[in-house]
Design goal:
- The protein has 14 helices and no strands.
- By secondary structure, the protein is an all-alpha fold.
- α4 packs across α11 and α8 packs antiparallel against α11 (201-216).
- The two termini are 43 Å apart.
């Protein structure tokens, strides 16, 4: 019986890992294909090996950097990259301060309507952005900040999901620890920045990565709120490589590869903290 049970478990493990490998390969296929096409010299070669999969589907017959040269020399793609980077980093910074303090308030301050207000705030991130795009555009226009980086950053700072993560994490911190800091003469901001922030490394990294990726992948809002070429971000720039009569496939694949590589390069070194932050904030009601 022990031998049969062990054999059955081995077969199940084999099927489990085979299924995982299949889905990983399925998910990586478009990324590897995009990377390969970014090093091809001509559009014709891009689709030459796609109808029948072969080694050359993922490995170009001739490696070429023409697409990357065209991307940065002819299309000046470094400007959208810089804009996206500035917008994402500033949103992460201000998002940490605003959402972190809001999560702290919801977790540790007892006031009338706390749960109702938090429920409304939490519900806000469930609303599709397309539903609020026009009212948001009119509101931002009324403040006179359209066609500025502020218009790209300010509406995206407050985030119900991020506040939820901070609130759940701060609820696990003992009240006695915070009260002892108050007794020692620490103020509210000092308690938050000097006591809670050092303890909140996992959730800060998780929340910051979520905000960064959201801003890095943003398309609709930058498209309508900042039409000035000097404010163009990565996703909008990539969409413009598709013209009415021609499509710069090589340039699109090169730009897509770079747009994917940057968040992956940030996420992989921090994935341990990201997983830890998400798991630790999702267990407590």
């Amino acid at each position: 019986m022990i031998t049969k049970r062990g054999t059955k478990e081995k077969i199940l493990d084999l099927l489990y890992y085979a299924t995982l490998i299949f889905f990983v390969c399925f998910a990586l296929f478009p990324i590897l294909w995009s990377l390969s096409n970014s090093f091809r010299s001509e559009n014709a070669e891009i689709f030459k090996h796609i109808s029948k999969l072969s080694l050359h589907t993922f490995i170009p017959e001739k490696f070429s950097l023409n697409s990357y040269r065209s991307l940065f020399v002819d299309n000046q793609f470094y400007r959208p990259l810089l804009n996206s980077w500035i917008v994402a980093v500033l949103t992460v910074f201000f998002g940490f301060v605003i959402n972190g303090l809001a999560g702290f308030a919801f977790a540790k301050f007892k006031f009338k309507g706390n749960n109702v207000l938090f429920g409304i705030y939490l519900f806000s991130f469930m609303i599709p952005f397309e539903m609020i795009a026009i009212p948001l555009y009119k509101t931002v226009g009324a403040f006179g900040i359209l066609e500025t980086r502020t218009a790209l950053i300010l509406p995206m700072i407050a985030n119900g999901m991020i506040v939820f993560l901070y609130r759940q994490f701060f609820q696990d911190i003992p009240d006695a620890l915070i009260e002892s800091a108050y007794i020692d003469g620490a103020g509210l901001l000092r308690v938050f920045f000097q006591l809670l922030v050092p303890l909140s490394k996992p959730v800060i990294i998780s929340a910051s990565l979520m905000i960064f990726i959201q801003q890095w992948d943003a398309f609709l809002w930058p498209l309508v709120a900042a039409t000035n070429k000097s404010l163009k971000v990565v996703q909008v720039a990539i969409s413009e490589f598709t013209g009415e009569f021609t499509v710069q496939w090589g340039t699109i694949f090169a730009a897509t590869t770079i747009a994917i590589a940057i968040p992956i390069g940030i996420l992989i070194p921090l994935q341990k903290f990201y997983i830890q932050g998400i798991s630790s904030t999702g267990l407590k009601e």
